[in-house]
Amino acid sequence: MSKVAIAYYHDLLGDDGLAAASRAMLAEELERAKLVFGGRLLSPYLRPHFLSEEEYAHVRRVCETLWTAVQKVKDLALEDRITAEELGLTPYEWELARLEPGYSMVSPTARFDSFLTERSYSFVELNGESPAGIAYADAAFDVFARLPVMRAFKERYDARPLYGRRLLLDTLLATYAEFLDHRQFARPPQIAIIDLKGLPTQQEFELFCEFFEREGYPTCICSPDELEFSKGKLRSGDFEIDIVYRRLLVNEYLPFIERFPALLDAYRARAVCVVNSFRSKLIHKKALFATLTDERYERLFDDAERAVIRAHVPWTRRVRDAKDKRDGEEIELLRFIEREREHLVLKPNDDYGGRGIFVGWRSSEGEWRAAIDFALKDGDYLVQERVSTSREKFPMLRDDGFEMSEQLVDLDPLLFNGKVGSAFARLSSTELANVSSGGGMVPTFIISDGAS
User: Fold this and answer.
1) With contact defined as beta carbons under 8 Å apart, do 435 and 113 qualify?
2) 127-177 pLDDT tens trace
3) In 3D, which of 244, 253, 255 has the Cα closest to residue 277?
4) Which member of 193, 208, 215, 266 has the lowest number of beta carbons within 10 Å of its beta carbon?
5) Is the dihedral of CA 330, 332, 338, 339 positive or negative?
6) Can you tell me the distance from the alpha carbon of 346 to that of 317, in angstroms, rounded to the nearest whole number?
7) Are 314 and 122 contacting, i.e. CB atoms less than 8 angstroms apart?
8) Number of C-beta neighbours around residue 352 at 10 A
9) Which range, of 23-32, 135-144, 202-211, averages the lowest pLDDT?
């Protein structure tokens, strides 16, 4: 259905009047809705991403099954220092992870990065610490739903949005209730969105702040240096904080943690509910996929989880000079990496935005050998097998109209307490679909036959 629906949508754009009206509205509405990242439009495309109901059901089933396996890795890594080391946690990160957050879910909010094709569905990583894009996607749903071309499209197809801000707020409140041992609270909890200053995601924080306050929950946006912990309360100025919506990454907090310890001190004292907790670092490391695909850990998982891992998680290993196994056969890992560059990527274990990634099939032999040397010297790199990627043509805005442009389509399902509730797609004309490295995003509508 998706291909037929996409073709119909593109046919509608053949109407010059409809296309021009939609283009003008899109450019204006993106600015108004704060769909801007680092000074550029975040969704410069005249079409959203579409999934059929059947495709979405498949995505949900696979993601939610894999999530139960992820929880089991977390449980083991909490108790077993060797597993934590295999994931790449430093001793201090493991110490932080072992602090009790006051609730059971390792990451109440999470995002898988994946590719859905006609023949396969593959994950490439999991953002389990501080997944971005939820509020941006909600704003984009509203913008795209109002476009004249989308209204014409909905005369033939149902197209339902997957709003995430409400789900995030519900998740924050449910986690806070568990944190309080389900005791009633006397007033609406106050929320702080915490990250470093001056980041390009500031507009998303503002979108969250507006929504939370509209729903009756006082909210502030602040950075670690603006926090104070005294008399059992975490504050930013006069604002008393009950829930921290943590967008601050652990590896970005660590250089400042001794100078600005209020957040950690309040967390350690169980004086504030932090979502996601520092424990989420256990599953945010990209080496999670090395654990999932390592035969030594198969015993952790049930039959359904093992089947999902085999079908959807790419073989992944830490880069090191050692023997390993691939499809049950013993290999010399470095020789294998050097020989199989057409089928492999190298990526840092704990970074984001596409930084430090080496794509084997885009590298010469010399470049690939240099990349392997760099990975070994760094000491915290992964090798991952190439997966089948998805590409679609999207009408991309230009100064004088639009042009059809083939884009890499990275599907990003968003999980709330382990259940898929929203999704969006990141698009790029390169091999990397990271917004931080120049890509864009569009909302994912779930479509079915019949007028809405």
Assistant:
1) no
2) 999 999 999 999 999 999 999 999 999 999 999 999 999 999 999 999 999
3) 244
4) 215
5) negative
6) 10
7) yes
8) 19
9) 23-32
